[in-house]
Amino acid sequence: MDGAGAGGEEREAPPAKRRKREGGHDDDGASFTYTELFAGVGGFGVACRRLGGRCVFASEIEPNARAAWLYNFVSAGAARRPGADQGPLRGDITKIATEDVPPHDLLLGGFPCQPFSQAGLQPGFETTDGVLYKQILRLLSGGAPPRMFLLENVPGLRTADEGRALHTILEDLDGCGYDVRCAEIDSAALLPQRRKRLYFVGFRRPAEGASVASAFAWPAVPDLTGARPLRAILDARPSAARFALTAAQWQRRVEMEPDRAAWLVDLDRAGPTLTKGLRRAPGRAAARRHVERGAGQGNWRNLVAHGEGAPRYLTARECARMHGYPEGFWLPLEERPDGPGAALMGNAVSPPVVAAILFAMRRADAVARGAAPDGHSAEALRCVLSDMLAAAVPPDAADAIKAAVKNAALCDVARPAR
């Protein structure tokens, strides 16, 4: 992987420094262990490490995502040298026996949703993505099932197949022996991105006594809505100019809708939902629907004004900041417009949101065990989020973010799905 910047210098922090910035916790003395399925670049891991977790197993097959995971959580050499030690990262989960996955406290994953787009008896379960979904069930019902899990998916799952898809998933997870809670959360309360996602929280059902789930409550977080405009996280590096559309790319959009403002993101609001295909130009039918909806902050309104010429795409670093990834988080070919960074971020999770949910899960676990929840108070979560959000902006903006988090009122962001 080429990590060179605009001036040819390698964007590589010393491993020890990088781990401190991203995870905030040394692997030694970890307070819990976790497994990360369909790991992508490791967004779940960023949150877990900040809370004191240690990864014992991860699975990912996409080459660029693997490179990012290895670089950020193992070493630069692991990302670049074939045969180098790859730490806990493995490949295709379907080819790994259940007994070869180490025991862990927490299972994490953003599982594919395509199997649930079919009606009736869900023939999509037999597709490749359906097989991947079943890997979660396999580990949750295997020989050493974790005490807890946290899964993520798209909000459309609530209405897919008139609600039957969500019902099936909840029944499957319950059948694995877990008490399950599900809610929709929008990242925009914390981050400069509107990103609604479904989160599934599960606690292993005890043979007797009260379940941890009875002590669980979705987290209340500092309400930063309106305080995190996209303008505050723009990429000021000269390399951002490379992301300008070509004359032909811009002309295609102008032919569909000549109003320049119809394509430009509103920099004074949270940005659009990042997707793998965010940079694709819409087809003419999609463009017409976009124009008819008016000047909302839809996903086709995703370009940044760049002088008087053609606007530019969001850079990979801007996408990472919209998700709340640390400034030191490495993405392959980050400063090249043809690099995979933006697409990787389109498939990623938002670490601060994940951290807030995990914090609430661990608080419930402490309460259920009769432990003092002092270390899991609302103010303790505020401190965690302050650190994470300040690390995900340019250094000169960090103090302003910390002040905003400190002064913000708490808000309930979860919309229960059942």
Radius of gyration computed on alpha carbons = 21 Å
Mean of residue pLDDT values: 85
End-to-end span in angstroms? 44 Å
Helix tally?
13
Could you give a short account of the major beta sheet? 8 strands, mixed
Structural class, by secondary structure, is: alpha/beta
The percentage helix is 25-40%
Name the assembly state.
single chain
Number of strands: 10
Taking pLDDT < 50 over at least 5 consecutive residues as the criterion, the unreliable ranges are 1-27, 117-125
* Percent of residues in beta strands: 5-15%
Per the principal axes of the C-alpha atoms, what is the gross shape?
A: globular
Secondary-structure element string:
HEHEHHEEHEHEEEHHHHHHHEE
Q: Which strands sit side by side, in order, in the main sheet?
A: 3-2-1-4-5-7-6-10
Structure described in brief:
It is built from 13 helices and 10 strands.
Structure in words:
It contains 13 helices and ten strands. The strands form two sheets. It has an eight-stranded mixed beta sheet with strand order 3-2-1-4-5-7-6-10, sandwiched between helices. A two-stranded antiparallel ribbon has the order 8-9. 32% of the residues lie in helices and 13% in strands. It has helices spanning 15-23, 43-50, 63-73, 76-80, 128-140, 164-175, 247-256, 284-292, 316-323, 341-346, 351-368, 378-390, 398-407; strands at 32-37, 53-59, 89-90, 106-110, 148-153, 178-186, 196-204, 220-222, 410-412, 414-416. It has 418 residues and is of the alpha/beta class. Strand 1 (32-37), helix 2 (43-50) and strand 2 form a beta-alpha-beta unit.
